[in-house]
């Protein structure tokens, strides 16, 4: 179903030789990996502090396969990894990708797709942990469509994000929904 990238890829000298070319060119690196690999990415971030790294999909917490039915245990290990990598100022996190079956929720097997309330309740611990660790200026909501459509619609995802973000100030919401992405990817808004 989901395959981990080869163990140690981010530590490989050949990979790092190529990675070293990013910062001088003003490029960033988006990394989609699974939570057991966050430590390798943190090592990479520490070795290349001038390279902007984007951790995709909340760090890929796994809840399927050998990780199924261990949500609390996996959450604690994932949370520790998120806090560790958040200590690298060159890393930002994308908040999303949680509607993939990877997280281990059974939304795709239910007779009706989840509501935005149900999705927000399921994803809130992950998203809030990331925002707490990175802060709104280093976190951004993301669209992972169409892969996420296997469990719910784009509207449900966006409304779930709005529900989760309701507690934050207007400035923090602006960062989470647009400004962080604009800054990281050097986009001109408006």
Description:
With 190 residues, this protein is α/β, with parallel strands linked by helices. The protein has one domain: Metal-dependent hydrolases (TIM Barrel, Alpha-Beta Barrel), CATH 3.20.20.140. The protein has six helices and four strands; from the N terminus they run αβαβαβαβαα. It has helices at residues 13-19, 38-47, 71-86, 116-134, 154-165, 170-185; strands spanning 29-31, 53-55, 91-95, 139-141. The protein has a four-stranded parallel beta sheet with strand order 1-2-3-4. Strand 3, helix 4 (116-134) and strand 4 form a beta-alpha-beta unit. Helix 2 (38-47) runs parallel beside helix 3, helix 3 (71-86) packs parallel to helix 4 (116-134) and helix 4 (116-134) packs across helix 5 (154-165). The N and C termini lie far apart (40 Å).
Fold blueprint:
Blueprint: H1 13-19, E1 29-31, H2 38-47, E2 53-55, H3 71-86, E3 91-95, H4 116-134, E4 139-141, H5 154-165, H6 170-185
Parallel strand pairs: 1-2, 2-3, 3-4
**Architecture per CATH nomenclature, i.e. the level-2 architecture:** Alpha-Beta Barrel
Total helical elements:
6
Distance between the termini: 40 Å
Helix content: 40-55%
Taken in chain order, the helices and strands follow as: HEHEHEHEHH
Percent of residues in beta strands: 5-15%
Secondary structure category: alpha/beta
Q: Uncertain segments of ≥5 residues (pLDDT<50)?
A: none
Q: What's the assembly state of these chains?
A: single chain
CATH class: Alpha Beta
Major sheet strand order: 1-2-3-4
Number of strands: 4
What is the gyration radius calculated from CA atoms? 16 Å
Number of domains: 1
pLDDT averaged over residues: 94
Shape, per Cα inertia axes: globular
